[in-house]
Amino acid sequence: MSRLSRANIRARESVFTGGPELYRGDIQAVCPPNLEECVLAMEDCCEEAYEAQQLLRNGTKDLPRMTKVLASERVFLLVNEETVKRYKADLADEIEPSINELIARAEQGLTALEKKESLLKTKVENAQMRPMRLNMGNTAAEKMEARRLQMLIKQRERLEEEARALKAEVEALELKSLNQ
């Protein structure tokens, strides 16, 4: 119930010191029941109008953003499957020569590494076949040869690892080219 629905039928108190005197118009100031109902109905209408105004404000305060959203253009366009297949074929035709060139390079690199690997294996085998001298006093040349042998062994292991990596890369590229 709003503050307006409580009708103040009495007259307000006087600000003068004389005290309340009965005014002749106060006798006839009693509201008829129809008028009181009319005031209550008017207050209800005011409350309904206020609630409708609040609802309208809440509904339209986002209007600038909504107009921008509704005014935006279509971003996505649907294409048929034939167009997708055509573009896929064009892309495959464009990329295929590059992939074939990369595969050829990888195979050349792999053969070069295999040659190096076989060369290093023969060097290691030759070094192992030399008779080891039993004397404890190793000369500087023997120490250099032992160091060189160790370096060759490490280089061989590294090249074997590179060969395996290149072989795996070639296989992956072949699979990729077959899938397209």
Automatic annotation (TrEMBL):
UniProt-annotated location(s): Chromosome, Centromere, Kinetochore; Cytoplasm, Cytoskeleton, Spindle; Nucleus
Keyword ATP-binding: no
Gene Ontology annotations for the cellular component aspect, listed alphabetically: DASH complex; spindle microtubule
Keyword Manganese: no
Record key words, sorted: Centromere, Chromosome, Coiled coil, Cytoplasm, Cytoskeleton, Kinetochore, Nucleus
Any single GO BP term: attachment of spindle microtubules to kinetochore
Coiled coil: 110-176
UniProt family annotation: Belongs to the DASH complex SPC19 family.
Name listed for the protein in its UniProt record: DASH complex subunit SPC19
Organism: Crucibulum laeve
